[in-house]
């Protein structure tokens, strides 16, 4: 019970005291006894009914029967039964009807049927009570033995193990399996994004004029870039580069956290809280990421691409989720597989030589690293024209 | 001194309530018994009706009134039984409602009793502390 939220342990004895359970069991047993009695009574009726049917069936065999007629408790006198085929049958509720033997047998057999159905229902009831009684006795004995009940609420964990599991279980990236984790991830992502947004706003305010100039400067480069990579263009055209930057940095932060701890240190002054939050999530990947450095290359590469194409933060969140899933997958499967699974990836990019894209991307990361650094520097120095500069440099490198 | 007064008051109150509740429960039990009787009668009447329906038109039907069997018309007997069934069903419904009301009252009374008991206990605990 180290983490208090994990679950609760309650001894059954505290929930149902042994005595109470025994009492309940006894009570139910009594009920069973009552029902048994009722059933026995009914069974007796059935037997009587059967006897009566036999008698009624036999009576009309002869025209008359010599019988001893009871007179009071002790006396009998000889008599004769005549009209052996005429019966006055009690229908119930003090109603009698004149019936022949055959008709009487019909009435009696119908009565027998109702009795049987009553017996059946009683039997079912008794069975129910018996299971109840056995349950109570079992509970009583369990309480006596000191059994405990461990109750653990299912909590959707936002830690990487779940991501890993879901990724491994559903490598095809089924939406059903991912949604729960994705929500949590979305939250995390949204928080990172909002923080980055804040910082970006600060920068913008610091160097507004410079930004404007650079944006104009940016656009021609964009077009050139478009021809090379579709990825970057979407967002460029739609939103200002600031947004783009923050998205990319948003991605690159956890990436670096997973890959290189040194770069984390660089980022830390900027968004300390966020990185630290992300870090534990990513740490399990660390060694594997090292092993699969090449894998990460293409993966990370299309990641920003998705984002740029989507151009909307919500979609980014989705890709972020995708990326996590694939990162889990990529460990188990060859690189090409990963590429195939990522539906969002453009077909143009697939055939591209990995090493090249790899380099390009790592360059991108480094560049952003730079960005961050410079940004931090800028924040300290608060020089007006700088904020746009790293972006343009990044462009140049990409080309 | 006043607290002891209050305590005694509460205890008397609790006793009264308990008695009341006991009476109530007895009444409920009685009504349940009545209800059971009516259900049995209803079942019997339904059986009679079934049998009467199966009888031929010219069959002789008698009703036992006291020590004598009185001959009755089949249609009359049939109508009588139907009426009786109707009456019993109505009675059952009425009883059901009545029992429900009684049980609701019983629950409210029990709650009131619990409250008084709690207050009593708290007062006693306070006393014990003091």
TrEMBL record, chain A:
Name of the protein in its database record: Uncharacterized protein
GO cellular component: chromatin; cytosol; nucleus
Coiled-coil zones: 28-55
Molecular function (Gene Ontology), one example: chromatin binding
Organism field: Eutrema salsugineum (Saltwater cress)
TM regions (residue ranges): none
InterPro entries: Prefoldin (IPR009053), Prefoldin_subunit_alpha (IPR004127), RNA_pol_II_subunit5-mediator (IPR052255)
GO process annotations (BP): negative regulation of transcription by RNA polymerase II; protein folding; response to cold
Alphabetic keyword roster: Coiled coil, Nucleus
Family: Belongs to the RNA polymerase II subunit 5-mediating protein family.
Listed Acidic residues bias regions: 199-212
Pfam family, one: Prefoldin
Compositional bias ranges of the Polar residues kind: 372-389
Entry's localization field: Nucleus
Compositionally biased residues, Basic and acidic residues: 229-246
Region (Disordered): 156-265, 301-320, 327-356, 369-399
UniProtKB/TrEMBL annotation, chain B:
Record bears the keyword Membrane: no
GO terms for MF: Hsp90 protein binding; protein-folding chaperone binding; unfolded protein binding
InterPro entries hit by this protein: PFD_beta-like, Prefoldin
Stored Pfam families: Prefoldin_2
Gene3D superfamilies: 1.10.287.370
GO CC terms, sorted: cytoplasm; nucleus; prefoldin complex
GO biological process: cellular response to gibberellin stimulus; chaperone-mediated protein complex assembly; cortical microtubule organization; mRNA processing; protein folding; protein localization involved in auxin polar transport; response to cold
Record key words, sorted: Chaperone
Entry similarity comment: Belongs to the prefoldin subunit beta family.
Protein name: Prefoldin subunit 6
């Amino acid at each position: 019970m180290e983490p208090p939220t994990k679950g609760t342990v309650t001894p059954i004895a505290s929930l149902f005291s042994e005595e109470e359970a025994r009492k309940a069991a006894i009570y139910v047993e009594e009920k069973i006894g009552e029902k048994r009695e009722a059933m026995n009574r009914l069974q007796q009726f059935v037997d009587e009914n059967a006897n009566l049917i036999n008698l009624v069936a036999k009576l009309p065999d002869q025209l008359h029967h010599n019988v001893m007629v009871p007179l009071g408790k002790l006396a009998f006198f000889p008599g004769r039964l005549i009209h052996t085929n005429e019966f006055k049958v009690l229908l119930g509720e003090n109603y009698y009807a004149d019936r022949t033997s055959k008709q009487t047998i019909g009435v009696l057999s119908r009565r027998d049927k109702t009795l049987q159905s009553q017996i059946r229902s009683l039997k079912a009831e008794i069975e129910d009570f018996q299971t109840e009684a056995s349950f109570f006795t079992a509970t009583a004995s369990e309480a006596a033995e000191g059994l405990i009940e461990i109750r653990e609420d299912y909590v959707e964990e936002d830690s990487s193990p779940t991501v890993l599991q879901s990724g491994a279980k559903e490598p095809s990236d089924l939406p059903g399996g991912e949604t729960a984790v994705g929500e949590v991830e979305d939250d995390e992502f949204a928080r990172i994004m909002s923080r980055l947004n804040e910082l970006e706003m600060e920068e913008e305010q610091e160097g507004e004029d410079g930004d404007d100039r650079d944006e104009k400067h940016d656009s021609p480069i964009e077009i050139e870039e478009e021809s090379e990579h579709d990825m970057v263009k979407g967002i460029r055209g739609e939103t200002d580069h600031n947004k783009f930057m923050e998205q990319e940095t948003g991605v690159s932060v956890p990436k670096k956290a997973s890959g290189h701890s040194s770069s984390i240190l660089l980022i830390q002054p900027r968004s300390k809280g966020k990185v630290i939050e992300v870090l534990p999530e990513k740490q399990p990947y660390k060694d594997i990421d090292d092993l699969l450095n090449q894998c990460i290359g293409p993966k990370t590469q299309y990641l920003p691409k998705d984002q740029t194409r989507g151009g909307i933060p919500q979609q980014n969140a989705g890709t972020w989720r995708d990326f996590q899933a694939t990162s889990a997958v990529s460990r188990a499967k060859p690189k090409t597989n990963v590429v195939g699974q990522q539906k969002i990836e453009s077909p143009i990019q697939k055939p591209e030589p990995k090493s090249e894209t790899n380099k390009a991307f790592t360059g991108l990361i480094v560049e952003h690293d730079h960005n961050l650094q410079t940004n931090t520097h800028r924040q300290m120095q608060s020089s007006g024209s700088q904020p746009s500069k790293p972006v343009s440099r990044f462009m140049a490198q990409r080309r | 001194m006043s607290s002891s007064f209050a305590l005694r008051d509460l205890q008397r109150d609790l006793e009264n309530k308990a008695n009341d509740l006991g009476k109530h429960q007895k009444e409920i039990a009685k009504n349940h018994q009545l209800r059971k009787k009516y259900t049995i009668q209803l079942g019997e009447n339904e059986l009679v009706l079934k049998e009467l329906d199966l009888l031929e038109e010219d069959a002789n039907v008698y009703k036992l009134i006291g020590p004598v069997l009185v001959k009755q018309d089949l249609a009359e007997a049939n109508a009588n039984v139907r009426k009786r069934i109707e009456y019993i069903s109505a009675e059952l419904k009425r009883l059901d409602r009545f029992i429900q009301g009684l049980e609701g009252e019983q629950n409210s009374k029990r709650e009131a009793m619990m409250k008084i008991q709690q207050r009593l206990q708290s007062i006693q605990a306070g006393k014990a502390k003091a």
